[in-house]
């Protein structure tokens, strides 16, 4: 039986002290850190033999016919899987939905379905070959999103990238360094059995094995013809854009399940968005521009990043000025009408904004929802608002939407009281039928902070609340050549109503690849589930009520806030990683976090649809139920 094995370090318990950043609220007492401690950089220790072959199927790649699945692909999550792996599999499904036309559904009575199990090791068959439950083995050691995507792509019909018939133009296999008896695992798949679909050879493919795959210890087995990719092959962050492209070509489709809209204004156009003249109470307009005198000086799309220089092409974004006019003057812009397709009626709007106006100016985000085909006016609902102090960098912003029918997204900039020299700018808009991250923490000038900060300096997010009401915050630890990412359970408003300890919650830590189109992003993320086995040295659960078992970490509104341990990854990202992809863009890095109750997966195959929480409006410069837009809606 051919399998993938992977060297993993054991979890360790590490206690260190953090030096609190002077730019943030200072804790009155430092917290302990529970470092998960797993080395999940699999580039150098991935093995090739993670695929099983049915009798008489040889090593052919999938060319079509009965070996392809019909979307949505039915699946079952077996009880042999640990809870964290189950949650990661569902997150991997969402990546396929965002990037491809392949969807997944819990199995009903289908004869062919994927059965995800822990069968000792990580492996998959290639293509649809086995009725009555085709096994995909995901052990705990490979229960992270890149490896899960790798195994699913095998099941959907993919072999490893280095087995392409044209691989000799891009890599050399050093058979002197291959384990004895494993030479056939590097056999190319011939032209008569496979197709590249004219997709370029992809060193970044999640299907490419690492440089030391199946090594006998005498050196690397895969040598890239282009040396700069030697330490790149074998990445397991996410599927690449070429992986997604080839998947859609294999399944003869050109759409995606969950991506609804993208615009980076790169052609100087508004992506078929249009002004709403009936809503404007003045002559204010949205304009496509290349810069604004008070900022920004360029668009977000073309900002310099780790893997690219500042482009020579002119970059565009949209801007609505608040420098002139009267309080209440507004500019409105709406997207085309979009249709929801997924059963869960939740959407995530993501965009970058730059605020160069007055702190009382507003950027309001609405949806206009249409009841049926006869409703031509629709009904507006306010879903998000940005106001406050101007920014010095482009800022990422998420807005959770819950449209159940056809809808439009509407952007409104409204002038507030006071003088303004700028306005609001927007760039790189993505809209998808997925849930938004629960927390976003953007750190500007990150590389400089890493170089000048004391080792162990911590940057904290504001206090957050989970869907169930648990309070927590995100922590980024700076260690000069690497950074850590953690979560800390805090005391909150609902502690006496909650179940303690806080168990079976999946914490997902993510560093965002800021490539403008989310379908082309390759972000880094790890997940871990809060468990009863996470104990402090005194035997108390690490997830116990911090009000009873923690210590005061800061004060908020004259209230003492208690914190427990800080739990996460000390070695979350190294400086070398930050300088790849678009993890640091224009000097800024973005960290995202989700805290999901995965209890339904103990005996089930899916999670309930997420619910959009009521919006907290901090500024109300007018009666929201009045105005020309509402007279038409």
From TrEMBL:
Its EC number is 3.4.24.-. Residues 60-254 form the Peptidase M12A domain. Zn(2+) binds at residues 150, 154, 160. It is an enzyme of class 3 (hydrolase). Residues 1-25 form the signal peptide. Keywords: Disulfide bond, Glycoprotein, Hydrolase, Metal-binding, Metalloprotease, Protease, Signal, Zinc, Zymogen. SMART domains: MAM, ZnMc. Binds 1 zinc ion per subunit. Residues 261-438 form the MAM domain. GO terms for cellular component: membrane. Pfam families: Astacin (PF01400), MAM (PF00629), MATH_2 (PF22486). This is Metalloendopeptidase. It comes from Poecilia reticulata. The lineage of its organism: Eukaryota, Metazoa, Chordata, Craniata, Vertebrata.
């Amino acid at each position: 039986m051919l399998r993938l094995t992977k060297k993993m370090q054991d979890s360790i318990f590490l206690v260190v002290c953090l030096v609190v950043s002077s730019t943030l609220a200072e804790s009155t007492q430092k917290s302990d850190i529970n470092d998960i401690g797993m080395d999940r950089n699999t580039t150098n220790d991935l093995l090739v033999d993670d695929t099983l072959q049915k009798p008489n199927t040889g090593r052919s790649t999938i060319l079509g016919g009965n070996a392809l699945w019909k979307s949505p692909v039915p699946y079952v999550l077996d009880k042999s899987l640990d809870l964290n792996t189950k949650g990661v599999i569902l997150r991997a499904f969402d990546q396929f939905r965002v990037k491809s036309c392949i969807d997944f559904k819990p199995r009903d009575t289908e004869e062919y379905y994927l059965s995800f199990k822990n069968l000792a090791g990580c492996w998959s068959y290639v293509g649809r070959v086995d009725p009555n439950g085709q096994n995909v083995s995901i052990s705990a050691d490979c229960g992270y999103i890149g490896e899960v995507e790798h195994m699913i792509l095998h099941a959907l019909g993919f072999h490893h990238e280095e087995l392409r018939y044209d691989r000799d133009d891009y890599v050399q296999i050093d058979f002197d360094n291959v384990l004895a008896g494993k030479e056939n695992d590097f056999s190319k798949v011939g032209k008569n059995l496979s197709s590249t679909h004219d997709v370029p050879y992809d060193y970044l493919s999640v299907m490419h094995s690492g440089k030391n795959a199946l090594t006998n210890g005498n050196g690397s087995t895969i040598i890239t013809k282009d040396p700069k990719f030697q330490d790149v092959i074998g990445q397991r962050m996410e599927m690449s854009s070429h992986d997604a492209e080839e998947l859609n070509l294999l399944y003869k489709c050109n759409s995606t399940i969950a991506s609804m809209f993208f615009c980076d204004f790169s052609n100087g156009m508004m992506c078929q968005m249009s002004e709403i003249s009936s809503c404007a109470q003045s002559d204010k307009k949205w304009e496509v521009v290349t810069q604004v005198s008070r900022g920004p000086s360029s668009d977000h799309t073309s900002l310099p990043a780790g893997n690219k220089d500042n482009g020579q092409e002119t970059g565009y974004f949209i801007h609505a000025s608040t420098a002139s006019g009267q309080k209440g003057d507004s500019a409105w812009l709406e997207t085309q009408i979009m249709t929801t397709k997924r059963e869960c009626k939740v959407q995530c709007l993501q965009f970058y904004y730059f605020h160069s106006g007055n702190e009382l100016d507003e950027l309001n985000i609405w949806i206009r929802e249409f009841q049926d085909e006869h409703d031509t006016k629709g009904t507006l609902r306010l879903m998000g608002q940005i106001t406050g102090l101007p920014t010095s960098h482009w800022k990422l912003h998420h807005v959770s939407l819950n449209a159940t029918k056809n809808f439009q997204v509407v952007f409104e900039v409204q002038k507030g009281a006071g003088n303004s020299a700028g306005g609001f700018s927007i760039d790189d808009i993505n809209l998808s039928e997925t849930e938004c991250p629960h927390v976003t923490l953007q750190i500007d000038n990150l590389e400089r902070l890493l170089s000048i900060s004391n080792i162990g300096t911590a940057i904290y997010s504001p206090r957050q609340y989970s869907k169930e009401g648990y309070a927590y915050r995100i922590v980024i630890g700076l260690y000069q050549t690497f950074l850590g990412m953690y979560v800390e359970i805090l005391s909150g408003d609902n502690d006496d109503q909650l179940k303690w300890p806080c168990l079976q919650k999946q914490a997902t830590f993510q560093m965002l690849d800021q490539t403008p189109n989310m379908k082309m992003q390759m972000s880094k993320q790890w997940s871990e589930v809060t468990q009863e086995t996470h104990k402090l040295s005194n035997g108390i659960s690490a997830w116990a009520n911090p009000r009873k078992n923690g210590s005061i970490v800061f004060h908020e509104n004259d209230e003492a806030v208690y914190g427990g341990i800080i739990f996460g990854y000390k070695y979350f990202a190294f400086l070398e990683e930050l300088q790849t992809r678009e993890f640091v863009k224009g000097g800024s890095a973005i960290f995202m976090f989700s805290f999901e109750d995965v209890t339904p997966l103990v005996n089930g195959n899916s999670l309930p649809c997420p619910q959009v929480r009521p919006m907290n409006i901090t500024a109300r410069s007018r009666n929201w139920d009045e105005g020309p837009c509402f007279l038409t809606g």
